[in-house]
Amino acid sequence: MLECEDRAARYLELTGLDPDSLRSGLGDPMVLASALEFLANHEPDLIRAAEALAVTPEELVAAKDALQA
């Protein structure tokens, strides 16, 4: 997600996070869920991320749902 500068800027803008708070929040389920939510809201990004992680888009959505439960 962060390899594309425009996508990263859009994520940070939408979440209100800055790079430091994102890094420090990587162990926080809500931060992780927000990243997956961001990807899930734009199918091309979701598909690209799934391919990069060698998982299905459905698995990423399920992970988001589990983190938000």
Description:
The longest helix is centred in the middle third of the chain and has 12 residues, at 29-40. By secondary structure, this protein is mostly helical. α3 (29-40) packs across α5. The protein is built from five helices and no strands. The model has no long low-confidence stretch (mean pLDDT 91). It is globular, with a radius of gyration of 11 Å. The N and C termini lie far apart (23 Å).
Q: DSSP strand (E) fraction?
A: under 5%
> What's the helical proportion of residues?
over 70%
| Beta-strand segment tally | 0
Whole-Å distance between the termini? 23 Å
Radius of gyration: 11 Å
Order of helices and strands: HHHHH
| Morphology | globular
Question: Which structural class best describes the helix and strand composition?
Answer: mainly alpha
Count of individual helical segments? 5
What is the makeup of the main sheet?
A: none
Average pLDDT metric: 91
Low-confidence residue ranges: none
Which labels suit this protein?
about 70 residues; mainly alpha; about 75% helix
Topology:
Layout: H1 5-15, H2 19-24, H3 29-40, H4 43-53, H5 57-68
What would a concise description of this structure say?
Helix content is about 75%, strand content about 0%. The chain has about 70 residues and is mainly alpha-helical. The longest helix is centred in the middle third of the chain and has 12 residues, at about 30-40.
